[in-house]
Amino acid sequence: MNPSPQYRRAVGTLAGLVVIWAIFGALTDTFLTGRNIQNILLQSANVGAVAIGLTVVMIAAEIDLSVGALEAMAGAVTAILLKFLEFPVALAVSMGLGTVVILGALNGLVTWKVRLPSFVATLAMLGVAQGGAFVLTNGRPVNRLPDAFRFIGTGTIGPLNAAVVSTGALFILTHIILTRTRIGRHLFAVGGNAAAAESSGINAGRIKLYALMYSGFTSGVGGLILSARLNAGDGRFGESDLLVAVAAVIIGGTSLFGGVGTMIGTATGVIMVVSIKNGLVLSNVQDFWQRIVIGLLIILAMVVDQVARGERSFLKRRRPGGASI
Amino acid sequence: MATDSMVPALAVEGLSKNYGAVQAVRGVDLEVFAGEIVGLVGDNGSGKSTLVRCVAGSQKPDEGTIRINGILQTDSNPHKVRLTGLEVVHQDLSLVDTLDIAANFFLGREKCIEIPGVSPFGFLDYGYMKKFTNQALADLGVNIGSIDRPVGFLSGGQRQMVAVARAITWGESIIILDEPAASLGVEQTKLVLDLVRRLADRNRAVVFISHNMQHVMGVTNRIVVLRLGRKVGDLRTRDTSAREIVELITGSDLGNPV
After folding, report:
1. A contacts of B88 (beta carbons < 8 Å)
2. B145–A196 C-beta distance less than 8 A
3. Does a structural domain hold residue B101?
4. Interface contact A199-B94, CB threshold 8 A
5. Is the pLDDT at B90 greater than 80, yes or no?
């Protein structure tokens, strides 16, 4: 795969991030401080993990609307196992992750075998998983979790926060899978042209199943980070993360139509959206405005993308034999 | 040239396929020998594409058998059929626009550096695939510049050349070309027709589907005509004329020339 046009897009996102940092740096004294940058990274950790899986699903030309609900579910399952059944941390964490990977697999199987659009399958799962998390926690937070578990959200590894390290590692691992492996290549092929992939012997349905399972897994990681940081399992967790993750992935240059997307773009997109939220708070803007701004940002990113695409095909027509644009 | 004593590379017998009440293909026989170029012609809706889809494994025939190099194909799918050395260039070209030329060349057969035990995660051998693709295109005399470009950035003719070159490279025994020269310019059309002729010299069995009588007459050894799902003609190209073929296609007598 030739990544260069995709990476050019990521450079654009990076430039946008620099502009946003410059604006908030000028508006407030506190935004561009080491402490706040660390804060931004920490706040990016859980939604970053969620956005990784969402990117993978969107590259396969599908969508996962259940990511936020799966976060809540992973946190709730783990919290209950830790608190009421006193499971060891490693076992509770594995079972929390296992639960949401299975739910992700259900998303994939409904999409593949029942042939429902992932939009419908994962919307249904949004309801099931969020409701399920409330049922499991009896509608109130399960809090005061063991310190060993809380380390995931609040501990540090060297100078870095443990959550930032795990999400960073997940970004790197996914980047390698996407760009270096056969299964990554098949993911782009299925998202770019499912019929062509099928006639080349690639099982598109199975690739989409894997993508939705992976999304379940990364959402689970995000959920555990959130629960560990907030010291609780709660059905309410992750509710606003779908909006933030979708915005971040689209801003990062992943195509809604599939076949295009990068980890560096998504990472930049996540940091950008979180920076905007953080900057608005520091600028004393009321909380509710954050969601409005992020919603509008999705539209802006899409328009910028369409303009960029139009420009590309225009240059292509002008220089049919020339270098890629 | 083919002889009757040989096993046909492709042998279709009594193939039928219905779509609900529509009988797309009705009891068609087709034999293609190695080294032979058979034209498959017929009007729109005559069953050509359905026949090809059944042979390629992307549709299941309701009746009839398909043998590739004498081996009966049962429960076939596109992946299994490709392993027999049969390649199809469909009219839609089956290219992934967002992937580059080398990636499309190796679509579904990526060359990987395998790590035992983690085969789905085999690591792509970029260098090999690039080198191989460049060499294959050069061998075929196809010049489309840098192979790092996504296929979506190529012109219609260039895309077609990539699809044809890919099929020729991997199709070790049978190659089916559905309108391979449809969107090509004069120069590229000539190149594709030359390639098709050279395939027969290399002992491949070729099925050539086209609406262009000039191309069909110019490149094939034999012509099979379908009308409304039935085979209505199977003629040696040198024993027939474009006029006769067109009459068979349309089912109307154009009147005997004196």
Report:
1. 199
2. no
3. no
4. yes
5. yes
CA distance B241 to B32: 21
pLDDT at A62 over 80: yes
pLDDT for residue B99 is more than 90:
yes
**Angle A320-A323-A325 (CA atoms, 0-180°, nearest 5)?**
90
Whether residue B91 lies within 8 A of chain A, CB to CB, comes out as: no
What percent of chain A lies above the pLDDT cut of 70? Answer: 93
How far does the CA of residue B155 sit from the closest CA of chain A (Å)? 7
Strand partners, A143: A232
The answer to whether the beta carbons of residues A80 and A142 sit under 8 Å apart is yes
Closest CB to B112 among A182, A202, A312: A182
The reply to whether B177 falls in a domain is yes
Question: What are the residues facing A161 on neighbouring strands?
Answer: A156
Instruction: Tell me which of B86, B88, B99 to substitute to probe the interface with A (most A C-beta atoms closer than 10 Å).
Output: B99
Residue A236 structural domain: 4-14+31-309
Q: Tell me, what DSSP letter sits at residue B210? A: -
Find, in chain B, the residue whose alpha carbon is nearest to that of A316. B153
Averaged pLDDT for residues A51-65: 97
Chain A contact present for B153, CB below 8 A: yes
Q: Which chain B residue lies closest to A202 (C-alpha atoms)?
A: B108
- Do the Cβ atoms of B121 and A192 come within 8 Å? no
For residue B241, give how far its alpha carbon lies from the nearest alpha carbon of chain A (Å). 35
Q: Which CATH number does the domain housing residue B243 bear? A: 3.40.50.300
Mean pLDDT of chain B: 88
pLDDT digits (tens, 9 = 90+) for B131-147: 999 999 998 888 888 88
Strands (E), A125-260: 142-143, 156-157, 160-161, 232-233
Mean pLDDT throughout B62-68? 93
- Residue A151 CA to residue A138 CA, distance in Å, equals 25
Count of structural domains, chain A: 1
B92–A185 C-beta distance less than 8 A: no
In a domain? residue A25:
no
For residue A184, being part of any structural domain is answered with: yes
Domain count, chain B: 1
Is B173 domain-assigned? yes
pLDDT band with cut points at 50, 70 and 90 for residue A316: very low
Tokens of A270: 């996540």
Question: Most distant CA pair in chain A: distance in Å?
Answer: 67
> Is A124 part of any domain?
yes
Write the CATH number for A282.
1.10.3470
**B85 contacts chain A (CB < 8 A):** no
Q: Please state whether A20 falls in left (phi above 0), alpha (psi between -120 and 50) or beta.
A: alpha
B182 — pLDDT class (breaks 50, 70, 90):
confident
Which is more confidently placed, B253 or B226? B226
Chain B interface disruption, residue of A183, A185, A317, most B CBs within 10 A: A185
d(CA B48, CA B250): 14
Which pTM was predicted? 0.88
Domain assignment present for B108: no
Res A319 pLDDT > 60: no
In the predicted structure, residue A311 carries a pLDDT above the cut 80: no
Instruction: Quickly tell me which residue has 């895309």 as its tokens.
Output: B159
Residue A58, CA distances (Å) to A114, A119, A254, B18 in order = 19, 11, 7, 36
